[in-house]
Amino acid sequence: MSKSVTDVICPFCGTLCDDLEVIVSDDGKKIEDIYNACAIGAEKFMHAQAPERVKRPRMQQPDGTYKEVSYDEAVEYTAQMLFNARKPLMYGWSSTSCEAQSVGHEIAEKVGAIVDNTATVCHGTTLIAVQDVGIPSCTLGEIKNRADRIIFWGCNPCHAHPRHQSRYSVFPRGFFTNKGHMNRKVIVVDPRVTDTAKLADYHYQVEQGRDYELLSAFRVALRNEPLPETVAGIPREKIIEGAEVMKSGRFGIIFFGMGVTQSLSKNHNIDNAIMLTKDLNEFTKFSIMAMRGHYNVTGSGQVLGWQFGYPFSVDLSRGFARYNPGETSSNDLLRRGEVDAVFVLGSDPGAHFPISSVKKIAELPSVCVDPHITPTSEISKLHVPVAFVGVEVGGNCYRMDNVPIEARKVVDPPEGVLTDVEFLTRVNARLDQLMGGK
Amino acid sequence: MAKLKLNLITGRTIHQGVAMEGGKEKDAYTKACGIIEMDPSDLKKLGIWKGTNVRVTSEWGSVVVKAVEATQGPHPGLAYIPMGPWANSVVNPKTYSTGMPTFKGVPIEVEPAINEPVLSSIQLVQKKCRGEA
Questions:
Q1: What is the mean pLDDT of residues A107-125?
Q2: Among A112, A212, A357, A374, which has the highest number of CB atoms less than 10 A from its own CB?
Q3: How far apart are CA B37 and CA B50, in angstroms?
């Protein structure tokens, strides 16, 4: 007889849905079905069951093949690599729990490493902008209950955060938004006619990379100052109309994504978006929120923040915390060849870093801690499979609006497979021995 | 052979997300991400059918992907490769002191490459790292 586990947290995107229902076999070992999850979340749970899953650490051999090793050998290799490196990079941390991040940071502090998370290729520029001009934000619950002007700027939640709109931003009926999407006006700014744009009331097909100009134009329109005929490919009348729609709401929110953080101007785009939010608060209540990607990238920023004072790209190699994106950020370090070992946990730079950085990782001593086979695991010297956080082990995670939510364990990990926390704790203990003998 | 200059952006698609969680070593991931979404008018300019393999070249690298018709268009002049090793073979790695490589707004050149295969993610990354691709 199968049993149902309710209120399961989905460990995929920053929306961190908390209403999944997972049907588990009677012995608690196999996931049989998943309800309420999006296609990506369901696939994540089901992939944990894949028969071809790697269950023991693998060491790369000189001919490029992999040989199975024990967890003891894996701990030894990792500890020795970090101990012997002068400036190791410890990257990832976004697909794991805050507890694992904390142990990882302890190791980093000991060995003088650089800790960086996936924000460096995602919302890192947002964090820089927030340090420049602050951020007026709110929680997703407030948006559900109050927001009647929803702006998606350079993000495509239909594809990247599939349940965001149905749970929080467009369709749900809230306390002051009891007609659901009938209460709301949706504006999408994107150079493509995305699936999100197709369900919007207003779509601004901005010229790619000209977000800064369009944001400025909206700020000009709010002040009733003159505008040129077109800005970033958008006619003046449409900009003025958009500004009126924003002003006329009772509570508005700007969600923004990679369209603004990864295009040229980067952090300055976000500066301007935050200042637009500030300007709109002259007329009504407005907030702004980053559409965070990994389910716990926000948590990584939080834990790094309260431990070292900076949310990403933290350099501990000098014995104290330094932060200077462009210098202490992963891609810059790798491209300049400034690190001599790479430890990756809970991310896949092999697939998601520019190839020039990936080549550097392949040249260095490297450890990849990941339940999946990924391009990173296949170029690393050591691949350590671990239990899936949020499926096979619980832990604390932060939603995109900085609300902490405890992920739940649904099934047992395969026999003998360690969790992130267990593996890191063993590496930490081994480092203590090595350093005690120094 | 015709060549076409386009502006490349990268990003997530739901197929990319599902295939990524299903296993990056699998065929489905190559089918989801080893593609370039182009406007029908751009396919016409290049003189190719949808489903043709093309070589995408930028200042920073080159990769073979399958040209498909944009599902979230029209966007003439703009091309889209879902995030993954194929896109990252050609993106601009410069961060301009922000830590963030320039994943969007990369000038590229597209040319038909009918006889060249689209490599799997693992093959592609391993070959690039060994300097073979």
A1: 96
A2: A374
A3: 9
Contact list, A356 vs chain B (CB under 8 Å): 60-61, 93
In terms of CA atoms, which chain B residue is nearest residue A40?
B18
The CATH number given to whatever domain includes residue A278 is: 3.40.228.10
Q: A156 to chain B: which residues are within 8 Å by CB?
A: 11-12, 72
Q: Tell me if the pTM is above 0.90.
A: yes
Give the residue from A244, A269, A290 where a domain finishes.
A290
Q: Which of A250, A270, A290 is the last residue of a domain?
A: A290
Structure tokens at A297: 């990238």
Q: Which amino acid is at B52?
A: T
Contact across the interface for B72 and A193, Cβ inside 8 Å:
yes
**Tally of domains in chain B:** 1
DSSP A189-229: E-SS--HHHHT-SEEE-PPTT-HHHHHHHHHHHHTT----S
In a domain, A8, yes or no: yes
CATH number at residue B52: 2.40.40.20
Range of the domain at B119: 4-130
Domain count, chain A: 3
Would the CB atoms of A329 and B11 count as touching at under 8 Å?
Answer: no
Q: Would you call A40 an interface residue with chain B, using a CB distance cutoff of 8 Å?
A: yes
Q: Is the ipTM of this complex over 0.90?
A: yes
Tell me which residue range forms the domain holding A398: 58-122+295-436
How many contacts (CB atoms, under 8 Å) link A and B? 184
Spatial CB neighbours of A27, under 8 Å, sequence gap ≥ 6: none
Asked if A351 reaches chain B (Cβ–Cβ under 8 Å), the answer is: yes
Give chain A positions within 8 Å (CB) of B20.
351
Q: What is the mean pLDDT of chain B?
A: 95
Number of helices followed by number of strands (H, E) in chain B? 5, 6
Decide if A325 and B98 are in contact by the 8 Å CB cutoff.
yes
Length of chain B: 133
Q: Are residues A87 and A167 in the same domain?
A: no
